[in-house]
Amino acid sequence: MSGSERKIRALREILQKPGNNTCADCGAPDPEWASCSLGVFICLACSGIHRNIQEISKVKSVGLSHWEDQELEFMAKNGNEPTKKIYEATVPVYYYKPNHKDCQVLREQWIRAKYERKEFSEAGRNLIYEEGTRDGMLMKRGRDNGQFLNRRFVLSEREGTLKYFTKFDAKDPKAVIKVDTINATFKPEKIGNPNGLQITYLKAYSTRNIFVYHDSSKEIVDWFNSIRAVQLHYLKVAFPGATDAELVPKLTRNFLKEGYMEKTGPRASKPFIWELIILFFLHLRIGLFFLVLQRPLSLCLKDAFAKGEVFLGNKDHGYQIFPGLPSGTHHNGSWQHGITIKTPERCFLFTCETEEDQESWMKHFSDVMSAPMSPQEFAMEATFRHKH
Predict the structure, then answer these.
(1) Which residues make Cβ contacts (< 8 Å) with residue 298, sequence separation at least 6?
(2) What's the CA gap between 92 and 119, in Å, rounded?
(3) Does the N terminus or the C terminus of the chain have fewer Cβ atoms within 10 A?
(4) Which subcellular locations apply to this protein (predicted)?
(5) Is 119 within 8 Å of 112 (Cβ atoms)?
């Protein structure tokens, strides 16, 4: 056995240690790269980020690079789990730790926060996300013309709000958003910017969207985690007996599913039209659909207002999901795989392009309807049904 073969075999043995079989930064399986200066195994995508912080991280391929004996010894001594105990020792519960499915900006700032800025390596450090207020400028998409303009945003833990102003020195905000209604998720492809953030919130029990970005990836991720920190503070005040494990799932989260379906109106005889539906759970159980018709899909994806909404309650309270469409439904659409959502008031009829899409949508709707409802969600249901 040659020296290089011996070293590759030694690396493979180190990879078998607990925690080394997934990327140290995003959890992707079977990492084939490593930082021989930090002592962690990482995936291809995260290795590209590590290459941009060369003064801290020296990246090598597990199977293709030349390894020195002292580098092998360092990897064997350290590895993912021991290194996490150093660089992730004090990660706040609200801080969003990205996985391999998340966008580049989240993974990059997570890696830089850990290894470059060492934000989580020692207790008692003052983090920018926990200052209680944040005031700055973000590029916001206009509701009518679609142009992005610089707008001032102010986040306040004391007031439990996120405000934005059309002018920096304006006295009155254009909008006051309660943090407990906010969901924020990165949508770079939809917004057309790698740092694009979609903020969804409730206003008078109707859903609104704001699309923003900042040229600095650190700045936009700092805003994102600051919102989560303020949300957690609000929830701890509202639910003093709840644990962090119970509250963290109520913070911002990604949409469960986003895609296209055909939809008919409340009367089954009404022809189907092509619509976009966005389903997200949040803690508000609201599914949204946006009218497409002949408009460019990119515009529909960035609508500020939903064409329609449906509250998805629990299956034991009159909410059901069925494959197919009711008998006698007038279906002139091109998609044949039907879904019927039944609420206490009415039925919503959709069709999917493929059977695979139908099964995926059915699973997500069913999961939401199977989850128990909180007292707050029962109150939301009552208000939602009265309004709609």
Answers:
(1) 190, 192
(2) 10
(3) N
(4) Cytoplasm
(5) no
Residue 69 and residue 221: Cα distance in Å, rounded? 39
Task: Give yes or no for residue 287 having a pLDDT over 70.
Answer: no
For the chain, the maximum distance between any two Cα atoms, rounded to a whole number of angstroms, is 76
DSSP lists the bridge partners of residue 117 as: none
Percent of the chain past pLDDT 90, that is, above it, reads 61
Spatial separation of the C-alpha atoms in residues 89 and 81, rounded to whole Å: 11
Question: DSSP class of residue 212?
Answer: E
Q: How far is CA 360 from the centre of its chain?
A: 19
CB atoms under 10 Å from CB of 193, counted, come to 20
Residue 376 has which token pair? 């707050």
At residue 1 the predicted structure's pLDDT band, cuts being 50, 70 and 90, is low
Helices (H), 20-66: 44-51
CB of 200 within 8 A of CB of 290? no
Predicted TM-score of the model (pTM): 0.85
With contact defined as beta carbons under 8 Å apart, do 347 and 318 qualify?
A: no
